Amino acid sequence: MRALRDMNLPKFIFEDVPLFLGLIGDLFPGLDCPRVRYPNFNDAVEDAILGNNYVLLENQVDKVVQLYETMMTRHTTMIVGPTGGGKSVVINTLAQAQTKLGLNTKMHIINSKAMTVIELYGILDPITRDWTDGVLSNIFREVNKPTEKKEKRYILFDGDVDALWVENMNSVMDDNKLLTLANGERIRLQGHCALLFEVGDLQYASPATVSRAGMVYVDPKNLNYDPYWQKWISLRSSKIEQDLLNKLYTKYTIPCIDLVYEGLVDGRQGKPLKLIVPQTNLNMLTQLCMMLNALLEEYKVD
């Protein structure tokens, strides 16, 4: 029961989780199978989150653990989810937690959509037969050099996954773990290395690519926008100012966001408003906090 739940839970969106847990409850009636806790790792994750001045949320800690468990069995993992869900925080927290536990973790971030396939993988001159390394081939060769140190090296692809460039990675993502370049060179992915993909969706990825990777879905509904406000308000120096801003936030900000995204007016369901420029509720709150930073900077409340 635990294996069935823990293998599938990371892939589900917010609405599917209670349905899945209900099915598990029907299959195994009367059994309560609590989530496995890794004492040292969970403590390191919580310390990393608090050390970065983030609000400690059980859902986010569990998402880091899900990523950790997925990467224990897969050398390629995709962290999928819309903007504002905390994907970057989950990835960085994993790296920081492992480093705290003595497993030094290094991240090499590549925006694969910001360059051509030639710039990414390299090119062989057909006349002179000279080979010019690409960004990825160069990084891939460096991180896979043997090391005596106890460390992990991750290549993080931050951007859309599409067949234009990712199909060349299929041989790395499967059990072969080999990157074959145009000059005939083959580089094997070593045990201390892994591939990570941080992507909003997989609508342009082929089934061949998706089936080769472990999946962790980060839903913005688990995080929502309130933790951002809690973090921002904690940085205000005056307690009086914090209390006043919290009252205004409860009175005006929450109802306005509910009106825009849910269509709620005084508890009555209406039609959500149409946005000219699509953005998330977290984007709106971020803009509000930035404006308050600019306006309140020269005013000190004692």
Verbal overview:
The chain is built from 14 helices and eleven strands. It has 302 residues and is an alpha/beta fold. The chain has three domains: 1-36, no CATH class; 38-219, P-loop containing nucleotide triphosphate hydrolases (Rossmann fold), CATH 3.40.50.300; 226-296, no CATH class. Strands 2-5-8-1-9 form a five-stranded parallel sheet, sandwiched between helices. The chain has a two-stranded antiparallel ribbon with strand order 3-4. Strands 6-7 form a two-stranded antiparallel sheet. A hairpin with a 6-residue loop joins strand 3 and strand 4 (131-133). Helix 4 (58-73) packs across helix 5 (87-100) and helix 12 runs parallel beside helix 14 (281-296). The longest helix is centred in the C-terminal third of the chain and has 24 residues, at 239-262. One of its GO terms (biological process) is microtubule-based movement.
Task: Note the topology.
Layout: H1 2-8, H2 16-27, H3 39-51, H4 58-73, E1 76-80, H5 87-100, E2 104-110, H6 117-121, E3 122-124, E4 131-133, H7 135-143, E5 151-158, H8 163-166, H9 170-173, E6 178-180, E7 186-188, E8 193-199, H10 207-210, E9 214-217, H11 220-223, H12 226-234, H13 239-262, E10 264-265, E11 268-269, H14 281-296
Parallel strand pairs: 1-8, 1-9, 2-5, 5-8
Antiparallel strand pairs: 3-4, 6-7, 10-11
The fold-level CATH name of the largest domain is Rossmann fold
Query: Main beta sheet: strand number and arrangement?
Result: 5 strands, parallel
Assign the CATH architecture of the largest domain: 3-Layer(aba) Sandwich
Helix and strand pattern: HHHHEHEHEEHEHHEEEHEHHHEEH
CATH domain class name of the largest domain: Alpha Beta
